[in-house]
């Protein structure tokens, strides 16, 4: 799961030919913001919530200070409540909660005197029917696998998906499709069979294994990952600071996301 600490303000200045106009731009450092990453699935727990603080625009860093000693709880609309325990700096785990499709979950975080809330409804689990891997070679000789994730979209409209890949191969993210998040919605294929292609660009060989997780997510989670992916791939650099923040379902200015999702997984061995 991603560190979502990419908050920053975009400063723009322009000078038209033939004009001499001074534009004063305030370049104050961006105030650190809470970054929340929280997921509940229909798999057995515990489920994790991670809390950290964002950096500022002028000091790029991959270290985000953890938020410790926070109060974190998750409740559902069936009356189940779990107060999470901090097991490492900024990492909080559930102890009794179990995700159930169809239930709505509410996250509550209190840290440094501020409260942050989010709500997410877990969709029904959609099973993967099959995984198909087709092998070919590029003109430069590189091996390429096109993996198709085949599943039947439910008849009701408004279904959203994220595909997570796990493999035995030590690779960079750009070796898989050049994208960081594989997302799909049923806007054009509602109620029909879907075959989503994931292109393995290089470094894969016959005998390598690939796990594909199909996560059924709600629209808020889809919007978060969709906007985050657009930001992170805008200049193909994972360490660049974004001029905007991805959409979030969290309140009170927190970055990040809270997602209740149902998951199906399937393994394929490349040939």
Account of the 3D structure:
The chain is mainly beta and 271 residues long. The protein has two domains: 34-124 and 218-262; 128-213, Immunoglobulin-like, CATH 2.60.40. The chain is built from one helix and 15 strands. It has one helix at residues 219-232, and strands spanning 34-41, 48-53, 71-76, 81-83, 85-88, 91-93, 104-111, 114-121, 128-137, 143-152, 160-167, 182-185, 193-200, 209-217, 255-269. The strands form three sheets. Strands 5-6-2-1-15-14-11-12 form an eight-stranded mixed beta sheet, covered by helices on one side. Strands 4-3-7-8 form a four-stranded antiparallel beta sheet, with no helix packed on it. Mean pLDDT is 81; it is low at 1-29 and 236-242.
Please describe the topology of this protein.
Elements: E1 34-41, E2 48-53, E3 71-76, E4 81-83, E5 85-88, E6 91-93, E7 104-111, E8 114-121, E9 128-137, E10 143-152, E11 160-167, E12 182-185, E13 193-200, E14 209-217, H1 219-232, E15 255-269
Parallel strand pairs: 1-15
Antiparallel strand pairs: 1-2, 2-6, 3-4, 3-7, 5-6, 7-8, 9-10, 10-13, 11-12, 11-14, 14-15
